[in-house]
Amino acid sequence: MAPVRERFLNACRKQPVDCTPIWVMRQAGRFLPEYRELRKGHTMVECCTTPELATEITLMPVRRFDMDAAILFSDLTVPYLAIGVEFEFKEGVGPVITQPISNRTDVERLIPFEAEQALPFVTESVQRLTKQLEVPLIGFCGAPFTMASYMIEGKSSRDYAKTRTMIQADPELWATLMDYLERSICSCLLAQIKAGASAVQLFDSWAGALSVATYRQHALPWLQRIVKCLKQTGVPVIYFAVGASHLYPCLREIGADVLGVDWRIPLSQAHQQLGPEFALQGNLDPTALLAGTDVCLQQAQIVLDEASELPGHIFNLGHGIMPSTDPDVLTSLVDFVHDRSRR
Ligand code: CP3
């Protein structure tokens, strides 16, 4: 087997690269015809919890495109299987929690768990993958705020009003929930790292809903503890939040190696506000891929130009790839990024 390609990890560590590495969020998913075909015979939960299936889906984008990293096929909701929070995937909506949590009794009912025992299929999938992959595998988990808001709201929400209310009405209950999630998330990510993941990403997709003061007091301390615990392993930690540029002064304090930038803000501006110590990941607007290859590559060149002064850049989209994306446009994008950034 060829040695694992280091380009992505070198960029995470702000070390020299031969060209800019690229992977895209949600690369293992619905825009791929081979994924849609496989999903006809299996539920989403089956795909996540069966190592043969999760492995196969993780490999799909790596086989088809010249990606510099793979991301484990799973979902933000998978740890809920161990926590004792029931949910189902609803067509066109996503995961829906059967009984969202709202009070102390609900929080005290959450099951403390060790990921290796409670989610053995994750370890097995990662082990299988790292035996086969010639690029690094990224493990992932939801960040505590986003995991908690899913449990409280029950599904994606416009304003996360129930969550923001709980934080203010009962900060002690919120802290109990966050303590519990901190332990759970550390266990999930450490298990993935122990099984062979080369980097981990914390998805805080909904953190942009918080004010600076609320984020600083009610989300940041737990993120800092999680990152501190992961740092002992030496693997790069990526933190990604959406619509969160108002939170940049706080994001600097998390301790992550790489910060994900969504499509709303130019990379040079993010770099200026975040400072020189972070590699940045991003940030092509996912809809650029829907506008045709020419437009997509023009926009990609702008992202590369914006990244020219960064200490480390991992090309990615500003959020997940849209299900209606033509895979051939992504093929052109991946090759373009490599060619145009060749040192
Ligand atoms: O990036 C990858 O390719 C790895 C797999 C991955 C999935 N979900 C698979 C998935 C990852 C990293 C996630 C993370 C995730 N899941 C997040 C955070 C990242 C983000 O995009 O903001 C969130 C909020 C979820 C919860 C979730 N799961 C939603 C809201 C939905 C429905 C909407 C959507 O974008 O699909 C899902 C379903 C889901 N997760 C699918 C996949 C491939 C589609 C399932 C299907 O219909 O086959």
List keywords for this structure.
alpha/beta; seven-stranded parallel sheet; two-stranded antiparallel ribbon; 9 strands
Q: What is the strand and helix layout of this fold?
A:
Elements: H1 7-12, H2 33-39, H3 44-49, H4 51-64, E1 70-71, H5 80-83, E2 87-90, E3 94-97, H6 104-108, H7 115-118, H8 120-132, E4 137-142, H9 144-153, H10 161-169, H11 171-195, E5 199-204, H12 212-218, H13 220-231, E6 237-241, H14 248-251, E7 258-260, H15 267-274, E8 279-284, H16 293-306, E9 313-317, H17 327-340
Parallel strand pairs: 1-4, 4-5, 5-6, 6-7, 7-8, 8-9
Antiparallel strand pairs: 2-3
This protein binds coproporphyrinogen III.
Residues 25-30, 39, 44, 71, 73-77, 94-95, 140, 156, 203, 205, 320 line the site of coproporphyrinogen III (CP3).
Q: In words, what does this structure look like?
A:
This protein has 343 residues and is α/β, with parallel strands linked by helices. The protein has 17 helices and nine strands. The strands form two sheets. Strands 1-4-5-6-7-8-9 form a seven-stranded parallel β-sheet. Strand 6, helix 14 and strand 7 form a beta-alpha-beta unit. Helix 8 runs parallel beside helix 11, helix 9 packs across helix 11 and helix 10 packs across helix 11. The longest helix is centred in the middle third of the chain and has 25 residues. It is globular. 46% of the residues are buried.
Distance between the termini: 26 Å
Question: What is the radius of gyration?
Answer: 19 Å
The side-by-side strand order for the widest beta sheet comes to 1-4-5-6-7-8-9
- Class computed from helices, strands and strand pairing: alpha/beta
Number of helices: 17
Mean pLDDT: 97
- The count of DSSP E runs of length 2 or more, i.e. the number of strands, is 9
Helix content: 40-55%
Please describe the biggest sheet, giving its number of strands, its sense, and whether it closes into a barrel.
7 strands, parallel
Approximate shape: globular
**Unreliable residue runs:** none
